């Protein structure tokens, strides 16, 4: 939820300190399919609110 307040989806590459990994172009991108898969996994782990916040950014 650190990029644009979680309003854009999940970033592909995030460093442990919470910054976006700038080592490749793909790590800076937000892919809708990956974001939806992450949100589905969050729902399975009972992270409902965070899942819908993540998916809502796409």
UniProtKB/TrEMBL annotation:
GO molecular function annotation: beta-glucosidase activity
Domain of life, per lineage: Eukaryota
Limits of the Glycosyl-hydrolase family 116 catalytic region domain: 1-57
Protein name: Non-lysosomal glucosylceramidase-like
Organism taxonomic ancestry: Eukaryota, Viridiplantae, Streptophyta, Embryophyta, Tracheophyta
Signal peptide: none
